Amino acid sequence: MSHGENQPVIVVEKSSGIGSFLWGAVIGAGVALLLAPRTGEETRAELRSRGRRLRAKAEDTADELQARLEDGYERAKARVEEKFERTRKNLSETRAGARDAVRAGKAAVHSAREELERRLADAKVARQEDAEADLDVDDIDSDDEDAVVSEDEATA
User: Fold this and answer.
1) How many domains is the chain partitioned into structurally?
2) In a domain, 156, yes or no
3) Cα 142 from Cα 135, distance rounded (Å)
4) Which whole-number Å values give the CA distances from 121 to 9, 85, 113, 129, in the listed order?
5) Domain span at 72
6) Which residues fall within 8 angstroms of residue 26, CB to CB, at 6 or more apart?
7) Separation between Cα atoms, residue 61 and residue 55, nearest integer Å
């Protein structure tokens, strides 16, 4: 075997994300502790201590994340409720406006109908008066014709 075959080979895989980095850091720290010049008891105590700190930090991070999520949820909920109430108010105002417009339309129709009926009644009265006046004129004309005929007969 040649000298180059006994050399260790390092394979580097590219991956994205911080998770891989953190896992590498944890594993590296664990290996460093295991290989450190300490007794087994000291190493185990150190690992327990770091584990507790890591767990506490993870819990703090989880609590912070939960608080942020709850805060974001509450703000989003408040915005949705505000928009919902604004929409409900606008709808109520629109309905009220539509009701007022319908009432005004009905009142205008009723008023126009009354005016039309009044004009129709006035026209009927005027027509009847004209018809009666025509009859009176016809009676006067026929009386005049009778008188003319009577005069003609008398002179004849």
Assistant:
1) 1
2) no
3) 10
4) 115, 54, 12, 12
5) 18-151
6) 54
7) 10
Determine contact, residues 43/36, Cβ cutoff 8 Å: yes
How far, in Å, are 31, 33, 46, 122 from residue 41 at the CA level?
15, 12, 9, 120
Q: What is the pLDDT of residue 42?
A: 81
Structure tokens at 59: 């819990």
The answer to whether residue 96 sits within a structural domain is yes
The residue type found at 49 is S
* 10-residue mean pLDDT series, the chain (156 residues): 61 61 79 72 84 90 92 94 95 93 93 94 90 70 57 60
Phi/psi of residue 104, nearest 5 degrees = -65, -40
- Residue-level pLDDT at 29: 78
If 0-12 CB within 10 Å is exposed, 13-18 middle and 19+ buried, where does residue 124 land?
A: exposed
**Integer Cα distance of 65 and 60 in angstroms:** 8
For every residue of 48-93, DSSP letters joined together read HHHHHHHHHHHHHHHHHHHHHHHHHHHHHHHHHHHHHHHHHHHHHH
